[in-house]
Amino acid sequence: AATLESPDGAISADIEGLRIASGYFQGTLYRGPVWTVSGSLEVSSALADVFAGPAAVLVLRNTGRDVTLGVPPYGIASSLGVSLGGNGLSVGGIVVSAKLDTAALPSPLTGSSDGFFVADSGPEAVPEPSSLSLLIVSGAFLFLFWSAMKRRRRAHTQ
């Protein structure tokens, strides 16, 4: 199930007609098959206020069997992609952060009247490096690589 919400949760709408389909992901650390989830939502004038602020919240709920989120070795936020489209216009959305809330799982180790105890695991923050830190580290690596190659060329020409 999927819901689009304002950051404060005051405005929300269920996304209907979710479809799961096979797809293919190609990145620097993983290349291979993935599953994709897609759906659509007609944005009414009341729902348009969801996009008035700096962010909108997409809530995905697993209503079926266990699933693995993300594309290893990428983190969850790096594995998620969002695109918005309509009337011939399509744009990519930016995933700013991701949070994983785990469902309370029954445990047969501690009994209750029905033989199960439900543990409250609470929300778990998903650690993700910031885009800026990745950009800085990548830039520093490229600069060091370029400098080493330049010194190597200079050494070979002398």
How would you sum up this structure, described in words?
The chain has helices spanning 76-79, 131-157; strands at 2-5, 12-26, 31-40, 57-60, 82-86, 89-93, 99-101, 106-107, 117-118, 123-125. A hairpin with a 4-residue loop joins strand 2 and strand 3 (31-40). The strands form four sheets. The protein has a four-stranded antiparallel beta sheet with strand order 3-2-1-4, with no helix packed on it. A two-stranded antiparallel ribbon has the order 5-6. By secondary structure, it is of the alpha+beta class. Residues 106-125 have low confidence and may be disordered.
List the helices and strands and how they pair.
Elements: E1 2-5, E2 12-26, E3 31-40, E4 57-60, H1 76-79, E5 82-86, E6 89-93, E7 99-101, E8 106-107, E9 117-118, E10 123-125, H2 131-157
Antiparallel strand pairs: 1-2, 1-4, 2-3, 5-6, 7-10, 8-9
Structure at a glance:
This protein is α+β, with helices and mostly antiparallel strands and 158 residues long. The protein contains two helices and ten strands; from the N terminus they run E-E-E-E-H-E-E-E-E-E-E-H.
Average pLDDT, to the nearest integer?
76
Query: What percentage of the residues does DSSP assign to strands (E)?
Result: 25-35%
Structural class: alpha+beta
Number of strands: 10
Order of helical and strand elements: EEEEHEEEEEEH
The N- to C-terminal Cα distance equals: 66 Å
Number of DSSP helical runs: 2
Order of strands across the main sheet: 3-2-1-4
Task: Round the Cα radius of gyration to an integer and report it.
Answer: 22 Å
Q: What proportion of the residues is helical, as a percent range? A: 10-25%
**Main beta sheet: strand number and arrangement?**
4 strands, antiparallel
> What is the overall shape?
elongated
Uncertain regions: pLDDT < 50 for 5+ in a row?
106-125
